[in-house]
Write a structure and sequence with these properties.
65 residues, mainly alpha, 3 helices, 74% helix, 0% strand
Length: 65
């Protein structure tokens, strides 16, 4: 996220009622999550994308018949 995006997101979250420390924690959480996603081996990433697709298309649910 570049500096302009950060400022826009910061203002939006601040107007929505988030405090400055909360916004900073959200920003750090997002950055750390993105870094962890990039560290995954390609096979794991593809498998995760496939499972997400299964859930999104309704082929996989947590409902057991």
């Amino acid at each position: 996220m570049n500096q302009m995006d950060y400022k826009q997101v910061f203002e939006m979250l601040y107007r929505a009622g988030f405090s400055v420390p909360e916004i900073n924690r959200l920003y750090r959480f997002r950055r750390n999550y993105r870094e962890c996603e990039m560290d995954r081996p390609p096979v794991d990433r593809r498998r995760l994308e496939f499972v997400r697709w299964l859930v999104a298309t309704g082929r996989l649910t947590d409902h057991i018949p």
